[in-house]
Amino acid sequence: MKRQDRRIQIRDCALSVFAAEGIAHANHTQIAKAAGVSLPTLFYHYPNHESLTAAVLQFVSKFLLEEIAQCAISEGPAGLPAIQRVLTRFAHSLGVHNDIVTVWLDWSTARASPVWGEYLKFHTSACDLIEPLIRQAQKAGDVDTELGSTEAAIIVVGAAHMITQMSLVGRPPEEIEKAIRRITIGVLMCPGKLLTNKLAPS
Q: Hey, what domains does the chain have and what are their CATH numbers?
């Protein structure tokens, strides 16, 4: 196997081990066993836990920002519809990419860990993708202008945690999609539009 292919294989196995054991508790022995390689081989590609953790978290970040958020944004109209698409695409990814979401959830609460600083960078990047959509929606009269665009972006990014929790406790997909509509319409939409929108929460 080529060196880059082996690195990717080890990283992917590490992702699964991180999801099962937690970022802080996974170790090279567990990951080597999952990848079917010797410890010396693993250490050759990733000399320490920090380098392997960085590779896994970079993969998680890239997937969520590019494959979920950016792809959803590019698939249709901007503004409020794009925000709904991002959250819906994320919700649909939960069953298919469970390891990625599980590691992200662990990462997002690791305040005492050395990886917390990287999570804050990820969170900022996610908000930076959403905030222009908020401003577009405000300009179109869809989102309340009394709600700051940065504040609104943080609310949207934070909604991913709620969506994940709903999925983990077994709520049906239609209920999760209804919650997404309630967030994007009930929380973000300007009062005048909320009164006339047929999807507004009752």
A: 1-47 (1.10.10.60), 55-196 (1.10.357.10)
